[in-house]
Design brief:
The protein has eleven helices and ten strands. The protein has about 260 residues and is of the alpha/beta class. The strands form two sheets. It has a six-stranded mixed sheet with strand order 1-2-3-5-7-10, with helices on both faces. β2, α1 and β3 form a beta-alpha-beta unit. α1 packs parallel to α3 and α5 crosses α6. The longest helix has 19 residues. Bound molecules: octanoyl-coenzyme A. InterPro entries: ClpP/crotonase-like_dom_sf, Enoyl-CoA_hyd/isom_CS, Enoyl-CoA_hydra/iso, Enoyl-CoA_hydra_C.
Length: about 260
């Protein structure tokens, strides 16, 4: 598929590096980039096992495109927010894990897309923030919801109300990112993590993701039911037989993804 603002690079073992390439605008998200992201994440090929999202140049994503939004009517803004939310939901619910490798500015919609990913790692150059209320708007791509579910309402409110930008170390301290690396190590570290993930049983990873995502959005009894269902489904896969046989035979499992 052809994209103007996405570069899709297939690494080995089903790991894909998706780079946002609107570098002149610091990868600010416009409608076209959103449509392209939506197209990619709504049809993730069966052979893809883990996706890494990063930004070209010095920025991850410097937010939604302010030039495009400036003259929106209320109804156009609603439609833009809906497209962003639908797209980020595709990322959150993507069949395979998505790692955000945050290489620079992750502001507004940029912070929001990172939080829609399963795991965030950052370079020492990363900067996170939610500048929206300084522009007279609220976060509109899920930021008021996912950020507080990720770092708790206290820090989420502080970031959103003050618009203060934080660096990678502060992001690490508040649990917004899992690891911080030197800029030239970031993608290699993301690939290393992705390769660890894809070496495990694909269906088990998929079911674990579904249990975490769906379970975190419901009450604990329903969540446990979801976990039980996925746990049970694992026992209908060949990979469960292979994983346990390999352990008992003291050798390495060969997972086939079924
Ligand atoms: N939108 C459009 N263009 C942008 C954006 C953006 N968000 N960010 C940067 N750019 C452009 C600049 O205008 C500039 O373009 P040009 O060269 O043509 O003048 C180019 O990128 C380079 O930017 P700077 O010269 O400003 O680079 P600096 O290194 O000096 O500064 C900053 C970098 C600090 C990142 C600065 O560019 C900045 O503050 N950008 C805006 C950040 C921001 O406020 N982001 C939040 C946007 S709002 C949002 O994301 C809401 C999401 C929900 C939407 C809901 C739908 C209704």
């Amino acid at each position: 598929m052809e994209y103007e603002f996405l570069n899709i690079e297939e690494k080995s073992d089903g790991v894909v590096l998706l780079t946002l390439t609107r570098e002149k605008s610091l990868n600010a998200i416009n409608s076209q980039m959103l449509n392209e992201l939506h197209r990619f994440f709504s049809h993730v090929d069966d052979d893809i096992r883990c996706i890494i999202v990063t930004g070209a140049g010095k920025s991850f994503v410097a937010g939604a495109d302010i030039g495009e939004m400036a003259n929106f009517t209320a109804s156009e803004a609603y439609d833009f927010a809906k497209l962003g939310m639908d797209t980020f939901m595709e990322i959150e619910k993507c069949r395979v894990p998505v790692i955000a490798a945050v290489n620079g500015f992750a502001l507004g919609g940029g912070c929001e897309i990172s939080v829609a990913c399963d795991i965030r790692i950052a370079s020492t150059k990363a900067k996170f923030g939610q500048p929206e209320v300084g522009l007279g708007i609220t976060p509109g791509f899920g930021g008021t919801q996912r950020l507080s579910r990720t770092i708790g309402p206290g820090y989420a409110k502080e970031l959103i109300y003050t618009t203060e930008m934080i660096d990678a170390n502060k992001a690490l301290e508040i649990g917004l990112v899992n690891h911080v690396y030197e800029p030239d190590e970031l993608i290699d570290k993301a690939i290393e993590m992705a390769k660890k993930i894809v070496s495990k049983a694909p269906k088990a990873v998929e079911y674990a993701k579904q249990s975490i995502i769906n379970g975190s959005q419901t009450d604990i009894d329903t969540a446990m039911q979801i976990e039980k269902t996925h746990f049970g489904l694992c026992f209908a896969t060949n990979d469960q037989k292979e994983g346990m046989r390999a352990f008992l035979d003291k050798n390495k499992p060969k997972f086939v993804g079924e």
